[in-house]
Amino acid sequence: MSSQPRKKWYHVQWYADTDTSEEKKLILKLDLLFVPFAVLAYWVKYIDQANLNNAYVSGLKEDLGFFGNELVQLQTFYIVGAVLGQIPFMFLFTYVPMYWLIPFMDVAWGVFTLLQYRTASFAEAAAYRFFVGWFEAAFFPAIHYVFGSWYWGDEIARRGGMFYVGLSLGTLTAGLIQAGASARLDGVHGLAGWRWMYIICAIITIPFGVLGYFVIPGTPEQPNRRVLQQADIDLSRERLAKAGHVSHGKVRFETLKKVLLGPHFWTIIATDVLFWNAGIHTSAGTFLLWIKSLGRYSNSHVNELGTIAPALGIFYTLFVCFSSDLLIGPAWAITLASSWNALGLVILVVWNVPEPAKWFAFSTMYASVALSSVFHGWVNTQLRTSPAERAFTLVLINTISQPTTAWTPLLVFPTVEAPKYTKGFAFCLACAVLLIASTHILRAYVRRKE
């Protein structure tokens, strides 16, 4: 069911034609409460996730003697924590109010981000990365669960797109923080610049976690009454009902059985696995390691130049997500993003090209993650009739798909092969092409089902 007919590009508008003035006020209230927080919270999440790569090229490698594959191994410890952490959290979505759960996760990973400043060995670094991953595990599906609890299907992607800008902003900001720490704080109070970066990141992270308690609206079933009145909740339920959305339901064993035995779930899984793996070159530090290999930039300048790709990712994300909601729909928006990613990967696979071509190729890499909110918003809509299935599926697809990125980088992106990752770039290219095919198979399945 579509909540409103798709319009020509020159008819683009923020609200549906059927929205009353009261509904428009409610949507605006939700937008102002939750969307800015989601962007900021995802920003700090990706500062804390991406800062390892920046620390590695800014002295951590030399200080701790990480001259082998320790970088990719630490990235794997993060992923293992992120995967295992999703298992308990996915059962909590329909039981614990989201305005409690999300802030708790945020503050907890902020604490472990802080602890990384004192790292003295590989084992200690691995433990901290594991717990950062554990508490960040359910953040992304949690935010999309809240989006799907208040918005129609064709309203989610553009909100999710603005939220997902936080990924690029976080990666970009981590580079700028490390550049500043390397240039101005290296040696202050006996701490290296990369250690100061972890302290700064934690100082940014923890207050935003506390803020979430006061601004996250929760869900219609478990609303945050500090920011919403009963009239808001009742109106939202009425509006969601018009689009076939259901607001009540708990995750139980029967939910698990129904989801796992259905072909719909496994079609989504196949698409999600390809999505995760088509973009692992963004988290493997490939761009930063290539810039450093040029041998003509200081540590701070390497980190500054490394912000080019995530900065372009902000544009990619907004363009793809708004196009999905307002113009071409989710399947074609995913196709657009994945095609742009594939173009850059073709150049990186060839490798023996002029240097400007490599700068261009690396600048396309964040198109691979720009489609994430489109895909998860699409899943939200497909499962709008069952909050329990929606909560379970949003987490479980990550729980199944993300573990594949725990071992694939070890095989195709070993640090010792930097910066020419022939196997890695070819692998990502294959996943990007297959992702396009899988997306249209899913599109055909959903159309036939509905």
TrEMBL record:
The keyword Transferase does not apply. GO terms for cellular component: membrane. The chain crosses the membrane at residues 76-93, 131-151, 163-183, 195-216, 265-290, 305-324, 331-353, 359-379, 391-412, 424-446. Its main location: membrane. It is a multi-pass membrane protein. Keywords: Membrane, Transmembrane, Transmembrane helix, Transport. One of its GO terms (molecular function) is transmembrane transporter activity. This is Major facilitator superfamily transporter. The lineage of its organism: Eukaryota, Fungi, Dikarya, Ascomycota, Pezizomycotina.
